[in-house]
C-alpha cells in the first residue's frame, strides 16, 4: 500500500513552535499546573508530566522520571556478564530479543568473540520478529491514546500472541526470552519452528493490509495526528533522537545500514523516511518498517545456512574478558539500543552502562508538546514509543 | 436480627440462626425442578465475585501481560473483570503488576486508600511479591504486602495471562467463601478493622515507616543449626 500525500492538508496550519515562544514571552496571567501521572491510563507506565496550561495550551511541560528505577546499572556491576543477560530482558520488556542481541554484541566486542553465521541469521530473524511485535503493539497503544478504545489494540495483541508463541517455543518464555549468548544463540531453531516463522511471515502482510485499511486513511486519525507534535530534523539530531522518531523527520539514519552489523548488508531492504516529523509520520514510518521487516524475514528465512548455532570456542562459565572497554549497539525497534562495558579482568563488569533509546527520544517531549493541548500531549507521548523499564532503568 | 452495641458500636446477633432446614441434596433436587433456594449471603457473594472490576493501573513488565489477559486470546471478560476502570473510585481490584519502587510505593498505597470497600489486591509477579530479580537493588520495595493487605499472590516473572486468570478465579472463590456477619466476616463488614493504610513518606534513606505493622510482620529469621 502506498503512502498518500497529505501535505496539502497541513499547509494552512501554523507551526506550533512560533506560537509557543510568543506565549512564553508575553503571557502574564494565571497559569494552571496539572500533574499527569504517575497513575494515568495514557502514560504507558509510571511516567509523570507536570503540565503548565494557559487555557488549554501547554506552555511548559516538566517530565518526572524514576518511578520505575530498578537499579539495572548497579545490579549489572554486581553480577557476572552472563548474569546480566536476564536483566536486559526487563529493560524494554516488549522487545527482549533485541536487548539481548545488543548486550551480546557488546560482550562479543569486548572479548573478541566470533559468532557463527547461522546464529547471525537467527538473530536477524528474531530481531525483525521483535520489530514486528513492538511496532504492532505501539500502533495499538497509539490508537488507544487517540481514543479508538480497544479495537486496534485487540487486533495488535492478537498478532502479538502469534509472535510470542514462536518466542515461547524457541526460548521457553513469552516475554523474557533470555535467548542470546556470547558467541551465538542458546537453542538451535528446529525445522518446525522455522516453518512456523515462515508461515507467520507470509501471513503478516495480510494482517498489515487489514490494519492499514482501518487506520491509515481514516479521516479521524488523520485529523487527530497530522501536524501534531512536529519535530524538526535539526533538533532531533542535536538531541540524539534515534530510531523511527528520527526517520520520521526525514533523516536517513538506520544503524542496520550505517553500522552494517551482523548479516544485514546481505539483505535488500529500504529505510522509510518521513516528511513532516509529526505523529502521523511516526505512525506511518512504523507501518512501513514492518513491511520492510517482512522483506528481511523472507530473505533471512530463505538464506538460513546450516552449521553450529554456538561458536565452539565460546566460554560461558567463568567468563573473564581482558581489561578494556566496548560499546555494542544495534537498531532496536525504538532506536539505538547500546551497552557500554568497562572490564577490569574480573568476572563482573567494572561499569555497565545502557544507552536507552526511549529515554533519549523522550528528551524532546517538551519541544514537541508546546503549543498543543493536553489531549495532543497524550498522543505525542504515545508516538514516542516509551517503555518505562528502559526510561528509568 | 442484628443489634448494634451502643457502647462500642459493634454488631452482634441476638438470635442464633436455626440450622438449615433444607439439605444440599434437596436444594439440588429443587433446582432441577426450577426452584432456586438461596440465602442473602450466597446471592451477595455470587454477585460480588463475578463483577470484580480491576483498576487500570500498570507498573512494569507484568502490566503487558495484564493487558494481554484482557485481550483477544485470553479474554478476561469471561470472568466478569473486563471493565478496567481508570479511576480508583470505581475499581474493586488493585492488580499490583510489576516492580514497586520506593518512589512509587506511596502512590500505590494512596491509590489503595482511594478505592472504596469492598476491595481486593492481587500481587502479580515476583517483584510485587518480594522484589523479585531486583530485590538487591537500593530502590526496590521488597513486596507490596509490607504496606497493603494482599489477597492473592501470583508468582512468575512475568506470570502468564493464564496465571492471572487463575489468580482471579482463586479470588472469586475467596469472595464466595465470605460470611456477611460474625467474627469471620471480611474487613469491610467489620467496624474494628481499618480500611485505609498509612501512606509512607519517601525519607532520607528508606520509606518511613518501612512497613505497616497492621498487615505485615517480619518473618522469623532462619538460623542454621550448625
Mean pLDDT of chain B: 85
Main beta-sheet strand count, sense and barrel state of chain A: 3 strands, antiparallel
Describe the global form of chain A.
globular
Shape of chain B, please? globular
Roughly what percent helix of chain A? 40-55%
Tell me the structural class of chain B: alpha/beta
Distance between the termini of chain B: 60 Å
Short account of what is shown:
The complex is a heterodimer of chains A (393) and B (226). Chain A is mainly alpha-helical and 393 residues long. Chain A is built from 17 helices and eight strands.
Task: Give a written overview of the molecule.
The complex is a heterodimer of chains A (393) and B (226). With 393 residues, chain A is mainly alpha-helical. Chain A contains 17 helices and 8 strands. Chain A has helices at residues 7-10, 16-26, 72-78, 85-89, 96-111, 117-146, 151-171, 191-215, 219-225, 233-238, 244-248, 255-258, 279-302, 357-362, 365-369, 374-384, 388-392; strands at 32-36, 48-54, 57-64, 180-181, 184-185, 324-331, 336-343, 351-355. A 3-stranded antiparallel beta sheet of chain A has the order 1-2-3. Chain A has a 3-stranded antiparallel beta sheet with strand order 6-7-8. In chain A, a hairpin with a 2-residue loop joins strand 4 (180-181) and strand 5. In chain A, helix 6 packs antiparallel against helix 16 (374-384) and helix 8 (191-215) runs antiparallel to helix 13 (279-302). Chain A is globular, with a radius of gyration of 21 Å. With 226 residues, chain B is an alpha/beta fold. Chain B has helices at 24-32, 40-49, 61-69, 105-114, 125-130, 161-176; strands at residues 2-4, 11-13, 93-97, 120-124, 152-154, 201-202, 207-208. Chain B has a 3-stranded parallel beta sheet, with helices on both faces. In chain B, helix 2 (40-49) runs antiparallel to helix 6. The mean pLDDT of chain B is 85.
Amino acid at each position: 500500500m502506498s503512502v498518500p500525500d497529505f501535505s496539502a492538508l497541513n499547509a494552512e496550519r501554523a507551526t506550533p513552535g512560533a506560537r509557543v515562544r510568543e506565549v512564553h514571552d508575553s503571557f502574564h496571567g494565571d497559569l494552571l499546573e496539572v500533574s499527569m501521572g504517575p497513575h494515568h491510563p495514557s502514560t504507558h507506565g509510571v511516567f509523570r508530566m507536570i503540565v503548565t496550561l494557559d487555557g488549554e495550551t501547554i506552555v511548559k511541560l516538566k517530565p518526572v522520571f524514576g518511578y520505575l528505577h530498578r537499579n539495572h546499572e548497579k545490579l549489572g556491576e554486581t553480577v557476572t556478564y552472563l548474569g546480566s543477560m536476564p536483566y536486559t530482558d526487563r529493560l524494554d520488556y516488549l522487545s527482549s530479543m533485541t536487548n539481548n542481541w545488543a548486550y551480546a554484541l557488546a560482550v562479543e566486542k569486548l572479548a573478541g568473540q566470533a559468532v557463527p553465521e547461522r546464529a547471525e541469521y537467527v538473530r536477524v530473524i528474531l530481531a525483525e520478529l521483535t520489530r514486528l511485535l513492538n511496532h504492532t503493539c505501539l500502533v495499538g497503544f497509539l490508537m488507544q491514546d487517540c481514543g479508538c478504545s480497544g479495537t486496534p489494540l485487540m487486533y495488535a495483541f492478537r498478532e502479538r500472541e502469534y509472535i510470542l508463541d514462536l518466542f515461547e517455543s524457541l526460548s521457553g518464555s513469552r516475554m523474557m526470552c533470555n535467548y542470546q549468548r556470547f558467541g551465538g544463540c542458546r537453542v538451535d531453531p528446529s525445522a518446525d519452528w522455522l516453518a512456523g516463522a515462515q508461515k507467520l511471515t507470509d501471513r503478516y502482510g495480510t494482517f498489515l493490509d487489514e490494519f492499514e485499511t482501518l487506520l491509515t486513511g481514516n479521516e479521524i486519525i488523520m485529523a487527530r495526528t497530522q501536524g501534531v507534535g512536529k519535530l524538526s530534523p535539526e533538533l532531533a539530531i542535536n538531541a540524539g533522537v534515534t530510531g523511527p522518531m528520527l526517520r520520521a523527520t526525514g533523516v536517513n539514519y538506520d544503524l542496520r545500514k550505517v553500522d552494517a552489523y551482523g548479516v544485514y548488508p546481505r539483505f535488500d531492504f529500504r529505510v522509510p523516511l518521513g516528511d513532516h516529523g509529526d505523529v502521523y509520520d511516526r505512525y506511518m514510518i512504523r507501518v512501513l518498517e514492518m513491511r520492510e521487516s517482512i522483506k528481511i524475514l523472507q530473505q533471512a528465512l530463505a538464506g538460513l545456512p546450516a552449521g553450529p548455532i554456538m561458536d565452539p570456542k565460546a566460554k560461558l562459565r567463568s567468563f573473564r574478558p581482558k581489561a578494556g572497554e566496548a560499546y555494542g549497539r544495534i537498531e532496536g525497534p525504538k532506536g539505538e539500543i547500546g551497552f557500554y562495558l568497562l572490564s577490569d579482568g574480573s568476572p563482573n563488569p567494572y561499569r555497565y552502562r545502557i544507552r536507552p533509546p526511549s529515554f533519549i527520544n523522550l528528551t524532546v517531549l517538551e519541544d514537541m508538546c508546546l503549543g498543543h493541548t493536553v489531549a495532543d500531549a497524550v498522543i505525542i507521548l504515545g508516538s514516542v514509543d516509551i517503555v518505562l523499564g528502559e526510561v528509568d532503568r | 436480627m442484628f443489634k448494634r452495641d451502643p457502647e462500642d458500636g459493634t454488631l452482634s446477633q441476638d438470635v442464633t440462626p436455626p440450622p438449615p432446614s433444607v439439605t444440599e441434596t434437596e436444594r439440588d433436587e429443587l433446582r432441577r425442578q426450577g426452584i432456586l433456594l438461596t440465602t442473602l449471603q450466597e446471592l451477595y457473594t455470587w454477585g460480588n465475585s463475578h463483577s470484580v472490576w480491576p483498576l487500570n493501573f500498570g507498573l512494569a513488565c507484568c502490566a503487558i501481560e495484564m493487558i494481554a489477559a484482557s485481550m483477544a486470546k485470553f479474554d478476561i471478560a469471561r470472568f466478569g473483570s473486563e471493565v478496567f476502570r481508570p479511576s480508583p473510585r470505581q475499581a474493586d481490584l488493585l492488580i499490583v503488576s510489576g516492580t514497586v519502587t520506593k518512589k512509587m510505593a506511596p502512590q500505590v498505597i494512596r491509590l489503595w486508600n482511594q478505592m472504596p470497600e469492598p476491595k481486593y489486591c492481587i500481587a502479580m509477579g515476583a517483584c510485587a511479591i518480594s522484589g523479585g530479580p531486583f530485590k538487591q537493588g537500593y530502590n526496590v520495595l521488597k513486596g507490596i504486602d509490607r504496606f497493603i493487605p494482599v489477597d492473592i499472590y501470583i508468582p512468575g516473572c512475568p506470570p502468564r495471562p493464564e496465571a492471572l486468570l487463575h489468580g482471579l478465579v482463586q479470588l472469586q472463590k475467596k469472595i464466595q467463601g465470605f460470611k456477611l456477619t460474625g467474627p469471620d466476616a471480611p474487613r469491610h463488614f467489620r467496624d474494628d478493622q481499618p480500611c485505609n493504610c498509612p501512606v509512607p513518606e519517601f525519607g532520607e534513606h528508606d520509606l518511613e515507616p518501612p512497613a505497616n505493622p497492621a498487615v505485615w510482620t517480619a518473618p522469623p529469621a532462619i538460623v542454621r543449626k550448625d
